[in-house]
Amino acid sequence: MRIAKNQVISISSVILLTMGFSPSPGMASDSIISDYRGSASITQGVAQTLESNLFECENGRSRIAGIGEIKDSEGQIWTVPAENHFATAPKAIDLYEECANITPQSLAKVDEASVPVAEVDSDGEEITGYIFADNYFELYINGTLVAVDTVPFTPFNSSIVKFKVKKPYTIAVKVIDWEENLGLGTEDNRGKEYHPGDGGFIASFSDGTVTGSDWQAQTFYTAPIYDLTCLTEVESKRLSETCTIEGTDHGEKAYAAHWETPSNWMAKEFNSSSWPQATLYSEDEIGVNNKKAYMNFIEKFSGAGASFIWSTNVVLDNQVLLRYQVK
Ligand SMILES: [Ca+2]
Ligand SMILES: [Ca+2]
Ligand SMILES: [Ca+2]
């Protein structure tokens, strides 16, 4: 089985080379799935589109946010960029969302009192959260899905949420760096057809909780990978630090690494002790200086002491799960 696949991929590499295509930067033509020894499941190439677009922008432009699925070499099917509840879950209230013409200059122009309160504990403390995600988040409090982002891909938006909960409580967030080229981890950007976009997540809460290095972040989908030997693992860290993050016009044969998400990863009692700590990123690294959805409310982001977080690779890791316990 494995040998047969190995041969198929080797033959296709040979055909590519003999037809005069040159491999992408960092793409090793002998990088084959059967030689990979890590814990991920590997897919190669573009996914089949299941949903062509989850979101239409009424005012202005947005990137197409599709959903796809792709089979790995063992026959297992993976949803890309990730399974999500965008279509069915309660949406967060927009702080800033251009497509809906919600563009306040500052928090003073936001009617915070009208934000609905999700009841996790009826006798709990009422807490307000301010969230900016590149590109999409789903927020769980003690395992209850409180709200999801209103814009899956672009334009960049920001959100306000309220919930009632008793301490200690657990925040769990699924964040997705969305992709145009489903299964390949890339988008048409910066003059390249297959440019790997980046992620980033920042939030503060009215009880003083902020995103930082004491949060945990584990990656579950990494792409594009052009040479599987660049993927490594140290303890429970899934590393792609030596993989190229350069864009290319020939990224259609990229590999992707997938790990199964535990079904109860968002539960309060889920044991995430093996997950790595979150990696911090600066505002410059995430590139928010020109994004009003962030800058107009910066007092609730970096101004509140929050930091951008993600897994160890903010470019290649596209589905990341975050957890934090508020004491
Ligand atoms: Ca968003
Ligand atoms: Ca990415
Ligand atoms: Ca992105």
Automatic annotation (TrEMBL):
Q: What range does the record give for the signal peptide?
A: 1-28
Q: Which UniProt keywords apply?
A: Signal
- State what protein this is by name: Uncharacterized protein
Q: Origin organism of this chain? A: Alginatibacterium sediminis
